[in-house]
Amino acid sequence: MNRTSLITALRSAIEPLGYSFETGDAHSAASKIRTYPAAWLDTPTAVASEGVNEGFIEYRISFRLLHAADHDAVLNPESVWAKIENDALVFLHNLYIGEGVVAIDSIKMVPTAFQTTNHGELGLTLTFALKVELYFC
After folding, report:
1. Is the Cα torsion angle 38, 33, 23, 8 positive or negative in sign?
2. Which of 58, 80, 89, 122 has a 20 to 30 Å separation from 135 between CA atoms?
3. For residues 5-25, average pLDDT
4. pLDDT score at 137
5. Residue 51 reports pLDDT greater than 80
6. How wide is the angle at C-alpha 116 spanned by C-alphas 127 and 11, nearest 5°?
């Protein structure tokens, strides 16, 4: 799985949950996110590889799952965070059953409020290690 295939796999795992998908440098999130719920993928970082002709590569992935925060959500963020956490678990399952994924490890989910854009959103920062098959041609 090359980098383009990786981003396609991440998009394919989150879009069925109704999230718009954007990726790039974290500083450009506010200008790119236009609809909610939104999934923002920080630029994936390759952190390890193994093999000569074929092998594996491990990426460090950081996703921000975001929902627009209306008045009720601000007063009761736990209900929104619970929904987003459930969406994150379904996303990870969708990703894991995809082609080329070997392992998902070191999962961390951190609730956030008003941190990614100036639109006003509640979110969850999801980070994990993703090990995928790699073929050298």
Report:
1. positive
2. 89
3. 91
4. 57
5. no
6. 50
pTM score, whole prediction: 0.85
Among candidate residues 107, 109, 110, 111, the one with its CA nearest the CA of residue 129: 107
User: Token pair for residue 92?
Assistant: 């990870």
The three-state (H, E, C) secondary structure of 12-64, written as one string: HHHHHHCCEEEEECHHHHHHHCCCCCEEEEECCEEEEEEECCEEEEEEEEEEE
Q: Tell me the C-alpha distance between 62 and 43, whole Å.
A: 8
Q: Which of 58, 73, 69 is nearest to 115 (CA)?
A: 69
HSE on the CB side for 133, CA within 13 Å?
9
Lookup: tokens for 35 = 């609809």
Contact 41, 29 (CB under 8 A): no
User: Structure tokens of 1?
Assistant: 């799985």
Element of type H or E holding 71? helix 71-75
Q: What share of the chain is helix, strand, coil (3-state, %, to 5)?
A: 35, 45, 20
